[in-house]
Amino acid sequence: MAITDWPEGERPREKLLARGAGALSDAELLAIFLRVGVTGKSAVDLARELLAHFGSLNRLFAASRQAFAAFPGMGPAKYAQLQAVLEMARRALGEAMRTGDALDSPAAVRDWLRLRLGGLGHEVFMALFLDAQNRVIEAEELFRGTLTQTSVYPREVVKRALAHNAAGVLLAHNHPSGVAEPSQADRWLTEQLKAALALVDVRVLDHFIVAGNHSLSFAERGLL
């Protein structure tokens, strides 16, 4: 059945306008982006199949151009549209982080990190360098690793902090396994980075672990 044949209150676009975007499922939101389905499938059907194929919204967002375009009904044009939407979201959240105290807007920081790291299939270690008012100066990917391991060198983190004249830093990395709990190695690394950065008077204010849609804060856990 075509979406136009659905009861008006159940059509994704009308439902969003009446009840807000938060009332829609992942598939319904994706269907609005897709706009149309393919022969024999509505946009919602197609959206559900996309999510099932890639496993989650985060993994769909992180899919390569080749993997995305290989799915029936998708292609380079739709991939470009999706990447443009994601980049606008990242930039909007980046503006929210840069215009005020990052510690006063932790939701924006977490949302930005989830968009940036949540769907990756390999580990990435990032640092968000802050000024004395805790405003974000720059966010940098510093190290990249395999499915389960990234080598992080404290000396390089210190060098980048000094290059940005940072007063503080937020650390972040992802767990492609989908489990946000810190390992003993994560805790040890955090202590090593705290000690190294303290020598140049740069404070480690938090360390976030991102796993899919979930994130963990070392500061909130009392681990800093």
Summed up, what is this model?
By secondary structure, the chain is an alpha+beta fold. About 45% of the residues lie in helices and about 15% in strands. It is elongated and about 65 Å long.
Describe this structure in words.
- The chain has 224 residues and is an alpha+beta fold.
- Helices cover 46% and strands 16% of the residues.
- It is built from 10 helices and 5 strands; from the N terminus they run αααααααββαβαββα.
- The chain has helices at residues 12-19, 26-34, 43-54, 57-62, 65-69, 76-98, 106-117, 154-163, 184-198, 218-221; strands at residues 124-130, 136-144, 168-174, 203-211, 214-217.
- The chain has a 5-stranded mixed sheet, sandwiched between helices.
- Helix 2 (26-34) packs across helix 3 (43-54), helix 6 packs antiparallel against helix 7 (106-117) and helix 8 crosses helix 9 (184-198).
**Straight-line distance between termini:** 54 Å
What is the strand tally?
5
**Major pleated sheet:** 5 strands, mixed
Approximately what portion of the residues adopt beta-strand conformation? 15-25%
Mean model confidence by pLDDT: 86
Low-confidence stretches: none
Compute the number of helices: 10
Silhouette: elongated
DSSP helix fraction: 40-55%
What structural category characterises the helix and strand content? alpha+beta
Tell me the series of helices and strands, N- to C-terminal: HHHHHHHEEHEHEEH
Rg over CA atoms, rounded to whole Å, is 20 Å
The side-by-side strand order for the widest beta sheet comes to 2-1-3-4-5
